[in-house]
Structures are given as structure tokens and as C-alpha cells.
């Protein structure tokens, strides 16, 4: 084994989050507000607070609107940089899934390196305990976290979850993430990024049984005390889960355990399903299962404070607000979400979900529903993949052009992670503009009042270069000339109102209510100097964050 003590401190960067979840009840994980070997000490903020200010922001976000025509200028910077955060479920059944994830890290890094974002990316890991802590130590230093004892027995995942993949007995990072910036990493000499991830990535299996992947994401976004998130980098959030999201306010955690939400002789993980999901059709096999907000009595409620689980608007609104805040600070407002969860193996191709009770009554009592994949192999100690209806709805509302939901039942996450890394590379120079962009020709689609300029590193001595618009013909685009190697496209179709696909906006832009998405296209084979960015300046008809529907 190799012993590495510390890494050095690197500079700032942007974020991708991968969240993993799976459930067990009976053993509590780290106490919020405490400190453990998995990550740095974290505060325990009031979860009712919805402040989305990024600590890394270098601007107040204030925009001065013109007194003459009322337009409000907004500037943002697009560069090929991304921050990647894995939110991994650390509950009792996740040993196998953590091992599968860990062995796939190398192919994930390889695809990132092949993309032009390979020059600048940052990867962190947190857990569904939702304490906001990021990992910075080798799993070999915390092997006790891979032991789990509950009413159904004792689980030891030290070998499969950690030892099979991590080669460093000691690995401690000054910053709780791994980073490559302009070709330089923040790791000790001789340690490569994939090997570091294979050690700090697996969190163990002794976390809380009521997993909170959505709340875990929110705590990192809203309370980033480490400086992990960067305004000028793409934010991508990817969840890995084999069970239902249970993101709830602390005051409702006891209420969840009342008999309304479970059917056995004690509260089980089924409360997370029963308190947040309603199924249509059945019995046995269901036509559809959808998110629902229920109160203490199990009845639907419109009061977010009365809902047993946090309403999903808490998370979509926070992501949209973060996008606007970053753009107001002159950064990148792009957000990308992805998910590896309880869906059928062919879900990326078909988009068809499966909802049915298990043939095993005790399994239904433990989890509330049967698995969505590997049906018939389920046991209470190893659920193949409970469908996560709440989490999937949030993720798919912030999807890109490619499939972004994959099956946790796959024996190899390499294909999913490679696709995710490829999607990140494609969207690193595209962004919805955070507000209602002024339309110069309202009768011809949206002709945005925007200017784009390519900016190069100072050491090259190159002047800024205006980015021309691409030539659009039907459902295809092209560069405006043979010597033009970068152009931009305007996407303005929010509801597929035109037959052409070339103008369709990404779901996350539609979710946020914006009217324009800009995409910078680059000619293949033409190298882009490291540190190059595209400065975007647009005129809004109201302050940033105000949608056209609200004007």
C-alpha cells in the first residue's frame, strides 16, 4: 500500500454533483454539525433558510437598469470548466453500489480528459446524510464506516466498498475535493485523479437510513463553507440512489414514524415512499407513481410547512435562483443534473418506468414498493433499486439533450458515467440567460439583444474576437464561413412549438422560465487555448431572474 499524507491547495473552480442513496433504518450516521473523517467539519444550518448566495461570488449581483429604455444589462462568462460533486448514499445496502461506482471512476475521468473541459475540473464527494461535508480522506482510514448492524443482521463491506479499489492507506487533502486546473492537480506527487477518487469516493454504509439526496445537494449549494463552488464554472449534479428520497425538515422526522406511513410493527424505509408518492392504477402493478405532498395525517396539503417531505419546488427554485445569482455575478449559470437510480436497465432508451409491488410482502413493508429493476432478486438486505419518483422528477426537469437517468442495477456504471462526462463536455459552453431577454424582432422568434466575444489568455496577446451567429437552415446549422471556427446558436423554443429540433431549449432553462438559451459551437479539430472564455452580454427587459411571464 502507498502512504500519502497531504495534498497542496489549488485555486478556485465550478461543480457537478453525483448523489447516491439507499436505505436502512436502525443505525444513525454522523450528527449534523459535527466533524468526522469522511469530510470537513460542517455547520448545521437551519434547513428552512433558502438563501442561495454563493460564498465564492465576487459580485453583489446588483444590476443597474437603464433609466432611458428600462433595459437591464446582464453579463456572463462561459468557459470550459466544471465542478463535479458526488453525493453518495452511505446507508446500509450501498456497499455493492459504491464498489461499482468506484471501479467506474477511471473511465469517467478518461472521458472528462478527452473533452475540452479536461483542462479545468473539480470533483467532490458528499453523502445523503445531508450534513454538507465533503470527503477528503482515504476510505482505508475509516474502514469502520463500512460496517453496519441492524435488526436483520451485520453487514461488512470493507472489502467490496473500499479495499478492492483504493490503494492508499492514507490520503488527506487540504481541500476536500480533487482538482485539475490548467493541467495541474491539487494532489500529492505520483497520485492520479482516478486513484484519488477511488479512495476518497466511497463513504461507507453506516449513514442514516432515511436518505436525503435532494437536501444533501441543497446543503452543499447553499452552505459551501469550503469554497468548492465557483461562479464561472458549470454546475452539474448527479445522483446515485437505490431508494426513495426522504428529504424532510428536522421537525417532521419524528412525525414520519407515525403509523400513517408504515404497515409493519415499526417504522421502516417505507415511510419515505408512502409520505411522498402516490400511485395510480393497481393493485399490484401501477400505471404511474407521482410525487405528492402529504401532511401528518396522510392527506394532501398545499402548505409547504405541513408537508412531511420538503416540496420539490424547494430544490428547483434553489437551482434556478443559483443560476440567476451566478449570472448576475458575471459567471456561468448553467446547471446539469443526472441520476443513477431505480429504473429499468433500458430506461435511457425507452424512458419507460416500472412500478409494482414485490411478491414478497415483507419487502413491501420495508420499502413501500417493489424494485424497478432486477425484479425477483430483491431481499430486505439488498434492494435492487427502489424507484425514486421525487428525485427523478427534479433531475429530469434539469436535463440536457441526452438521456440523464440510468439504472442502479447495472453491473457497470462506466457506460452511464462516460455518457454523463460526455454530456458535460457538450454543455460547458451553453447557458440559458437568467431573465427575460429583450427581443429585437418579436415577429421572427426571439432575436435576442445579446453580444458574444471570445476572450483569450493574456499571455497570448490576442484581442477579443466577436462570436458570429451560426447559419440556421431548417433543422441544421453551419458555420458562417470556412475560416470561422466558433459561432453561437439561439434556442428559444420552450414547448416544442416548432417542428425543428435545432431551436429546442434544454429542460432546465424551461423549468427556470427563461426565454433564451445560447450555445457556442466550435469546429472539431481546432484546438482551444487553455483559459479561453466567451463573454456574453445581453439586455433584459427587467431585473435578472424576472421571467417574461412576470413582466
> What is the overall pLDDT average?
83
Q: Specify the overall morphology.
A: globular
Strand residue percentage = 15-25%
Task: Tell me the span between the first and last alpha carbons.
Answer: 62 Å
Number of structural units classed as domains: 2
Count of DSSP H/I helices: 11
- What kind of sheet is the major sheet? 5 strands, parallel
Structural class of the secondary elements?
alpha/beta
Radius of gyration, in Å, reads: 23 Å
Task: Give the tally of β-strands.
Answer: 24
Fraction in helix: 10-25%
How would you portray this structure in words?
The chain is globular, with a radius of gyration of 23 Å. The strands form 8 sheets. Strands 2, 4, 11, 14 and 15 form a 5-stranded parallel beta sheet that branches. A 4-stranded antiparallel beta sheet has the order 3-24-17-18. The protein has a 4-stranded mixed beta sheet with strand order 16-23-22-19, with no helix packed on it. It starts with a strand and ends in an 11-residue tail after the last strand. It has helices at 95-114, 158-163, 193-200, 213-222, 270-274, 313-328, 347-350, 361-367, 389-396, 414-427, 507-512; strands spanning 2-6, 15-21, 72-79, 82-88, 120-127, 147-150, 153-156, 168-172, 178-181, 184-185, 234-241, 277-281, 286-291, 335-341, 405-407, 430-432, 450-455, 465-466, 468-469, 471-473, 476-478, 486-491, 517-522, 533-540. With 551 residues, it is an alpha/beta fold. Residues 8-37 and 39-61 have low confidence and may be disordered. Helix content is 19%, strand content 22%. Helix 1 runs antiparallel to helix 3 (193-200) and helix 1 (95-114) runs parallel beside helix 10. The protein folds into 2 domains: 2-27 and 69-251 and 305-427, no CATH class; 430-550, no CATH class.
